[in-house]
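User: Could you go from structure to sequence for me? I need the amino acid at each position, not a summary. Structure tokens:
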């Protein structure tokens, strides 16, 4: 790791009497290799460069016994922590020196904690370098970290000491921690899962790193106005990030566009085009009660300074002069930039390739360095495991192939064997839009060499399919090829196409001849790809497509249509676009494919990738998701954590969550019930204050807190929730005050989540929720019996407040459409009762907590396809209560906004944006009847509290520690490596 850019660190440690340097020495608690590695105690430390430098000096891992005794016994006192904070406030400031307000106190505190983390970070890195064991690398477009301060000092077991130190300096730990912005590196469950995994990897002492992109402006900051959701750029990096260290000496070139040529040695070479530089920014990820501190490496993008066109700048053409830099920097501006436009698609593909290219260059550089002067490429899979978190990092497969063949001189067969053994894929969805497809033409322009390699992989796959199924049944073979090929809407190779040749029924062949002539120009559609010169990417294809599709003017097209009618032929149609199916490439190119919940993994095998499962059943696994119990109960819910520790008799449950099951034997204890409800009431009071601050709405902490917080999407069915609330409200309005109070328990219905900026229907749902809330919350007839609150800009920090306060949580997606979910696990862990469908991890949660402690409703996954067919056939009859609710919304009861387009999606039998694809109407009667059962249960607080306790007791399976152990053993083949 690189030397610190300031000389103040040594002074800081000296002023702290070397206390920070001596603080880390946790007891061994792992089955892993126990190797003594302690840094010699010195009055300073350096920040090492975790990079690809040609030679790495490894420190002596053995310390003297006297130093060891000092390390074991030296207490880190609040006074020395306060001195460190004061030092950073004075000598590494980001603020003016006049005062020591909370923002400045946060940065100084974070830098003090980072000092401690760097020691462990360095030791972990050095140890992994020295031992040269196999390491896992987790590539993800998202890492939704949340705030880091409380998590870091909690993992270091220094929460009390830092709280005391800040009190000495005139602040509280809570107020200082609240100054930290959430890192805007993710959006939903995908990024939160990745962050939980990093926490567990460090805690369990596995050698692993994370790789992602450093988004300057995140996804967006959500504002709620009278018009609904509005988006503005995130500002989380505006005054810097105290946790990251920029590694300006760790950078890699990344290329786009250009052309592919053949070198004199016969190898392919990708030249020309647009070149940028990816620069590393490292964030330490500390484990809990262990020295192991792993690395999250984030890439930013730029171009060298010499690409600033000074001539153009001095000529007044400032935009042109800075164009190269602007094009490079914007790659890491926004998470998931809108891709409705061609430019948006290009930017997204650039993001994905930048992540893959920079990360693989870094991984390979580390492998070469650790190998010394004797690099054996066939050993790469024995030292490196690359996990692709969803399809975004799919380009790792052709990129690794390109590197091994074009840069390292390997043959196709050698490179393919290494790539398949190195790479694995986690599928996170069955939704078509998330099973990514990229335009072949766009990819060919942007990444010409990768398209050549993908064509060769597709060609090889076609051969594998034919070898497996033979040619005796062309109809079956044709279906298999159509479903399994990586290249979609492509002609088959000529040798295969003749198997499906059919007699021509018409002498009119001009159009077909043109298409055939065009197809001859495609590198892999007709003939087997060869390692031979290919002219600049896409030119023949583009020219041919224009001749075939666009050169015919309108009169000529009409004439052709008339001729076709004369011989009873269909009119000439535009062929579907040629696409690259990234999920298929993931399955073909990796050695393992896993789903993230039992039901999801079965759907993956039986539906999504059934043809691949039949061909390679050994590839497919299940790895049910999990969440870290450190952040998601121990740190965010200290009141309940204290109750659990008291009744179990140990806090070992933070690491061994199976101990939570011991709560079951106390589930009927009145004393536990009292303490359990007190902890929940305390958390609800905090949330009531938080909601008042963020929304202006006052809520009653004695009401039931009913929460749905997740990305806004039609399949997650926030629309079902809000229509259920509308039904509840309408019934209340029809009753007397006495009838209302007898029938309904008071509820605070809380929503949170972002609708993607171009997802119009999701934004309409947000608008309806806020309009319903504005009406109900100001209705004097309703009072505290019902409140509806949409929390703007929902993030991890908000979840850390809301989840501990929750009593009912809604996980109500259409069955079979949610891969797993992780928020359902967090809610259950915090003693929240769930209402939901049998979807994703709900199935396993219900099994663990008990059927009586989960409110189940709705159609089952195996029924969905048939229900949609019945709807399309006009056989669905809507429940009269559903029709009543829709009419009530349309009546203007919630303001003047027109909801016809939103509600129109629930009407009709079929068609785009129609036919109630997500079965809101079908499940509505079951849903509102289930909600009545919720009211009945909540009125019996003894029963409800027992249900809450049993949810926590049954949540032990859903720790990310369990998930990571399974990945390590079944997919990555890595072992823990503990630093003592």
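Assistant: Here is the amino acid at each position, in order:
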């Amino acid at each position: 790791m690189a030397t610190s850019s300031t000389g103040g660190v040594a002074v800081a440690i000296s002023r702290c009497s070397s206390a920070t340097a001596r603080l880390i020495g946790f007891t061994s608690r792992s089955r892993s290799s126990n190797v003594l590695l302690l840094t010699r105690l010195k009055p300073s430390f350096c920040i090492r460069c975790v990079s690809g430098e040609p030679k790495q000096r490894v420190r002596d891992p053995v310390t003297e016994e006297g130093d060891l005794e000092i390390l074991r016994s030296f207490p880190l006192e609040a006074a020395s922590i306060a001195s460190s904070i004061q030092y950073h406030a004075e000598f590494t400031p980001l603020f003016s020196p006049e005062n020591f307000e909370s923002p400045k106190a946060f940065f100084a505190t974070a830098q003090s904690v980072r000092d401690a983390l760097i020691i462990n970070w360095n030791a972990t890195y050095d140890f992994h370098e020295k031992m040269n064991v196999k390491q896992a690398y987790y590539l993800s477009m998202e890492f939704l970290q949340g705030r880091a301060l409380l998590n870091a000092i909690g993992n270091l077991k220094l929460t009390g000491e830092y709280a005391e130190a800040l009190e000495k300096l005139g602040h509280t730990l809570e107020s200082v921690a609240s100054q930290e912005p959430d890192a805007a590196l993710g959006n939903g469950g995908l990024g939160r899962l990745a962050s939980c995994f990093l926490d567990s990897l460090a805690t369990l002492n596995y050698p692993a790193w994370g790789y992602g992109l450093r988004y300057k402006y995140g996804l967006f900051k959500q504002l709620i106005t009278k018009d609904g959701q509005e988006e503005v750029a995130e500002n989380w990096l505006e005054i810097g990030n105290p946790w990251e260290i920029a590694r300006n000496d760790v950078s890699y070139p990344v290329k786009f566009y250009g052309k592919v040529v053949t070198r004199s040695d016969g190898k392919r070479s990708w030249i020309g085009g647009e070149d940028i530089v990816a620069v590393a920014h490292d964030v330490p990820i500390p484990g809990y009660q262990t020295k192991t501190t792993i690395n999250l490496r984030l890439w930013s993008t730029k171009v060298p300074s010499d690409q600033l066109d000074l001539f153009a700048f001095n000529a007044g053409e400032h935009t042109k002069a800075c164009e190269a830099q602007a094009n490079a920097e914007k790659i890491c501006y926004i998470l998931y930039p809108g891709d409705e436009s061609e430019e948006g698609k290009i930017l997204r593909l650039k993001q994905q390739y930048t992540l893959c290219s920079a990360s693989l260059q870094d991984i390979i550089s580390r492998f070469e360095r650790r190998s010394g002067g004797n690099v054996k490429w066939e050993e790469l899979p024995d030292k490196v495991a690359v996990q692709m978190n969803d399809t975004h990092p799919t380009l790792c497969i052709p990129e690794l192939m390109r590197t091994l063949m074009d840069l390292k001189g390997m043959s196709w067969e050698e490179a393919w064997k290494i790539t398949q053994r190195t790479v694995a894929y986690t599928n996170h969805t069955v939704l078509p839009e998330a099973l990514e497809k990229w335009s072949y033409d766009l990819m060919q322009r942007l990444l010409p060499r990768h398209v050549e390699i993908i064509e060769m992989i597709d060609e090889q796959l076609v051969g594998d399919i034919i070898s497996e199924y033979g040619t005796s049944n062309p109809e079956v073979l044709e279906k298999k090829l159509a479903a399994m090929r990586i290249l979609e809407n492509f002609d088959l190779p000529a040798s295969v196409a003749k198997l499906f040749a059919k007699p021509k029924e018409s002498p009119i062949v001009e159009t077909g001849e043109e298409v055939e002539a065009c197809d001859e120009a495609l590198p892999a559609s007709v003939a087997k790809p060869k390692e031979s010169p290919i002219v600049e990417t896409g030119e023949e294809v583009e020219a041919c497509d224009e001749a075939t599709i666009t050169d015919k003017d309108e009169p000529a097209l009409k004439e052709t249509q008339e001729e076709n009618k004369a011989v009873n032929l269909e009119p000439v149609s535009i062929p579907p676009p040629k696409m690259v199916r990234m999920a298929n490439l993931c399955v073909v190119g990796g050695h393992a494919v896993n789903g993230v919940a039992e039901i999801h993994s079965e759907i993956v095998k039986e539906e999504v990738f059934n043809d691949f499962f039949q061909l390679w059943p050994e590839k497919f696994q299940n790895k049910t998701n999990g969440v870290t119990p450190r952040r998601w109960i121990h740190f965010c819910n200290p009141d309940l954590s204290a109750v659990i520790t008291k009744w179990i008799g140990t806090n070992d449950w933070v690491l061994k969550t199976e101990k939570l099951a011991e709560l079951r034997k106390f589930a009927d204890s009145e004393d536990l019930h009292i303490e359990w409800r007190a902890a929940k009431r305390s958390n609800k009071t905090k949330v009531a204050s938080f909601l008042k601050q963020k929304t202006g709405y006052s809520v009653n902490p004695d009401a039931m807190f009913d929460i749905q917080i997740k990305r806004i999407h039609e399949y997650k069915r926030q629309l079902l929730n809000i229509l259920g609330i509308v039904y509840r409200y309408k019934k209340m309005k029809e009753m007397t005050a006495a009838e209302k109070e007898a029938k309904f328990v008071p509820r605070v219905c809380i929503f949170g989540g972002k609708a993607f900026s171009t997802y119009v229907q999701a934004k309409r749902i947000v608008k309806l929720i806020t309009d319903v809330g504005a009406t109900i919350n100001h209705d004097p007839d309703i009072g505290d019996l019902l409140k509806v609150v949409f929390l703007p800009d929902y993030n991890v920090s908000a979840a850390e407040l809301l989840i501990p306060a929750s009593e009912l949580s809604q996980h109500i997606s259409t069955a079979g459409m949610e891969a797993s979910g992780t928020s359902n696990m967090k809610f259950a862990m915090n003693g929240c009762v769930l209402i939901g469908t049998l979807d994703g991890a709900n199935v396993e949660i219900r099994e663990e907590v008990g059927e009586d402690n989960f409110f189940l409703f709705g159609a089952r996954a195996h029924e969905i396809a048939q229900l949609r067919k019945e709807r399309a056939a006009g056989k669905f009859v809507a429940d009269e209560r559903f029709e009543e609710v829709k009419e009530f919304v349309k009546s203007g009861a919630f303001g003047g906004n027109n909801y016809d387009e939103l509600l129109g999606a629930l009407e009709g039998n079929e068609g785009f944006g129609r036919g109630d694809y997500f079965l809101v109407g079908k499940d509505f009667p079951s849903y509102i009847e289930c909600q009545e059962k919720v009211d009945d249960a909540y009125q019996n607080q003894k029963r409800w509290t027992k249900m809450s306790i049993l949810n926590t007791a049954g949540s032990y399976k859903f720790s990310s520690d369990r998930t990571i152990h399974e990945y390590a053993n079944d997919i990555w083949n890595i072992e823990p490596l503990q630093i003592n």
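One structural detail worth keeping in mind: The longest helix spans residues 102-131.
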